[in-house]
Amino acid sequence: MFKKSNMFIKLYCILLLYSDFCDARLIDQSKQDDEGKIIDLLSSINFNNMENIKSESRRSYGNDGDDYDDSSQWKGRWFPGDSKMTMGVHENCDDGKTNLQVDWDNSPENYTCFERAIEPNDSEEKIYCEYIPKLYYDAHLCMNETIEYDDLIPVYGNHRPVWPVYGEYKFIPRERWLHSIEHGAVVMLYHPCAHPKLIDQLKSLVKNCLRRYIITPYNLVDVDRPFVLVTRGCRMEMTQIVPEIVEAFIRVTGLHGPEDIPEDGGFDEGLIEKAPPRFDESVSTLCSKS
């Protein structure tokens, strides 16, 4: 119980302030009535509303906000170059069918387990969030060039113009699912050797929370935390599946991409199961029990 409650506190701190001035010591754990109260608090946060974050910063530091600059909190290392390519199918750029080997060579090692199943351990959940300025944009790059990333599991970045059909995949490369999180999707990554029962448990939670999801094995996931949820600007790595924590993370960070596009894209290579329709999907209905 202590571990779970402590994780909610860290999740609240990191996602509420989205910066370095949040300190878990500011919250007295003994004053928390129960986990449900923390979940309600998390659910009320408008995660990507930078005005909320700026006002929180002003209250914390006594800044009247007149000289506040969004870019001052930018921790990234680069901005993409000019890109005139719009999203969607372009015959001479990306049609979602041609030159797919540029992103993935169809190697089975990306989705196949060659070792024993990974057993859960005592590692705590690990959350990473990065501030993304409003003026930042992801470039759409054609299939005649490779895309390099600084992180094994990026939380934003350049990607292909054609975004995926929402659903579960045999394998789908990050060049595609990064476009999905730009549209507000939640991406579930799992190591191919992760415990099958835990894989199914997390799949069920994600599928019940929203329609805009991508599920795929990913052999670059840390074996100590073989499950990862990725949303725009954030990722959470896990070894065990705690439903309350998973749902709280999705409710806070899901459907908050800069482009609110619920429609499926034109990429479906490796699609196992398409996400079923959900006509009432919104931030307020994420992980709804009804």
From TrEMBL:
Residues making up the signal peptide according to the UniProt record: 1-24
Keywords, sorted A to Z: Signal
UniProt keyword Signal present: yes
Matches recorded under InterPro entries: DUF3105
Domain of life according to the entry: Eukaryota
A GO CC annotation given for this chain: cytoplasm
Protein name stated in the entry: Odorant-binding protein
Organism per entry: Aphidius gifuensis (Parasitoid wasp)
